[in-house]
Specification:
The chain is α/β, with parallel strands linked by helices and about 300 residues long. It is built from 14 helices and nine strands. It is about 50% helix and about 15% strand.
Length: about 300
């Protein structure tokens, strides 16, 4: 199988690198050619447009920041559909809402192609070593055809059901992560204001029933002051908006998610849409004039 990978941001570049290390032939494209340089050095081929990227591959993989960007890359004059071979596949690894997935899948089908959605969860640091979880939605035979590639990008590939299913569970997992992040900031602040050693408090929480993946990862980035999770406020607010939409669609009250969404909106207003999402905790630090630094925590997460 030969793949094109479009969207070489923090996540996409790492996932494309996993394919290259596994020996797959990969063509890459991004509107910013700079992040492609590392991949070209690894053996990737550059394409000037999404159309060119799609022209000579079995499947095009995209990892993009928003539904509007995904649609533009897919349907533009020099988009994926203009170059996709008959029977070719579009594998969408972006976080989209279910409605957009189904609408864009219909466009792909009308053009003679097929769509597989496969957003990932686990964070950029796990993507660097192919340790994320891949959440797949679509036909079982299409997933089977591309599972070898997906398994090089993720340690676990879960078939969630038909198209749209992966979009729903990805939004749910992100919603939980953002709720956990705000809660972890409050817990660490309680420990700090009560006079506890924050490093020891972090270890105590990590070994307790209150532990979470977010505490183990983003909790460290709070304590070392970097906040560098490689995921922005804009993306967090987008995903929480998707979650609130699901709540309305399925008549599920999302009280905690709604409070968390408002907290992230305040954080984006305070620090900017390009700030790391982990800086949502800084709202509390600034409000109380109390930082949450602790010595000895690594500057970057390791897989």
């Amino acid at each position: 199988m030969r793949y094109a990978y479009i969207g070489l941001g923090h996540l996409g570049a790492n996932l494309a690198a996993c394919l290259l290390r596994a020996g797959f032939a990969v063509t890459v494209h991004d509107r910013n050619p700079e992040p492609a340089q590392r991949l070209l050095a690894m053996g990737a081929t550059w394409a000037a447009t999404p159309r060119e990227a799609a022209a000579d591959v079995d499947a095009v993989i995209t990892c993009l920041p928003s539904p509007s960007v995904s649609e533009a890359v897919l349907t533009g004059p020099n988009g994926v559909l203009a170059g996709l071979r008959p029977g070719g596949a579009w594998i969408e690894m972006s976080t989209l809402d279910r409605e957009t997935v189904l609408r864009l899948a219909a466009l792909v089908q009308a053009a003679g192609g097929r769509m597989l959605e496969s957003p990932v969860t686990g964070g950029v640091h796990l993507a660097a070593t192919g340790q994320v979880t891949v959440l797949a939605g679509g036909d079982a035979d299409l997933l089977a055809a591309h599972r070898p590639a997906l398994e090089k990008m993720g340690r676990q590939v879960l078939h969630m059901g038909p198209l749209g299913s992966a979009a729903v569970i990805k939004v749910i997992t992100n919603m939980l992560a953002f709720i956990h992040l705000v809660a972890d900031g409050e817990a660490l602040m309680l420990a700090k204001r009560a006079g506890l050693d924050l490093a020891q408090a972090w270890h105590a929480i990590a070994g307790s029933s209150g532990n979470s993946f977010v505490h183990e990862t983003e909790g460290q980035l709070i304590l070392n002051g970097s906040y560098d999770i490689a995921f922005t406020m804009d993306l967090a607010c987008k995903d929480l908006g998707f979650a609130m939409g699901l709540g309305r669609d399925y008549d599920v009250p999302l009280d905690l998610a709604a409070l968390t969404a408002q907290t992230f909106i305040r954080a984006r207003a305070a620090y900017g849409g390009g700030a790391w999402s982990t800086q949502v905790v800084k709202l509390l630090e600034d409000q109380l004039s109390t930082d949450l630094r602790a010595p000895g925590f690594p500057a970057k997460l390791e897989a």
